[in-house]
Amino acid sequence: MASNKKSEFPESIQNFATFAKLLSHPARIAILEVLAKRQTCVCGEIVEVLPLAQSTVSQHLKELKEGGLVKGSVEGTSSCYCIDWEHFYQMSDGFIKCINSIKEYQKENEGCC
């Protein structure tokens, strides 16, 4: 059985990968855009503006919520979601920092390939 070596990497790299995975599907990016524009949103409203089935939107919202980018509550048959801005900024700032760190190596490797 293969062991998971994820924990062997620095936390900053793990967070970078988590954020990238959360943004790796166009539907999740579109959902974040809808939530950002509306500040707060009922899941049904998201379905109205995206070309996705209710179950698909729900699955992507679940992933965004588990990843900490979205917070929400269920009231009866309605679900209300919004962006967790504090966590979004933490993750996006860390992502940008890692990207910039990687870009720094390009200056040292101008002659490569």
Automatic annotation (TrEMBL):
GO terms for molecular function: DNA binding; DNA-binding transcription factor activity. The keyword Transcription applies. Keywords: DNA-binding, Transcription, Transcription regulation. Pfam families: HTH_20 (PF12840). Coiled coil: none annotated. The keyword Transcription applies. SMART domains: HTH_ARSR. Residues 8-103 form the HTH arsR-type domain. PANTHER family: REGULATORY PROTEIN ARSR, TRANSCRIPTIONAL REGULATOR, ARSR FAMILY. This is ArsR family transcriptional regulator.
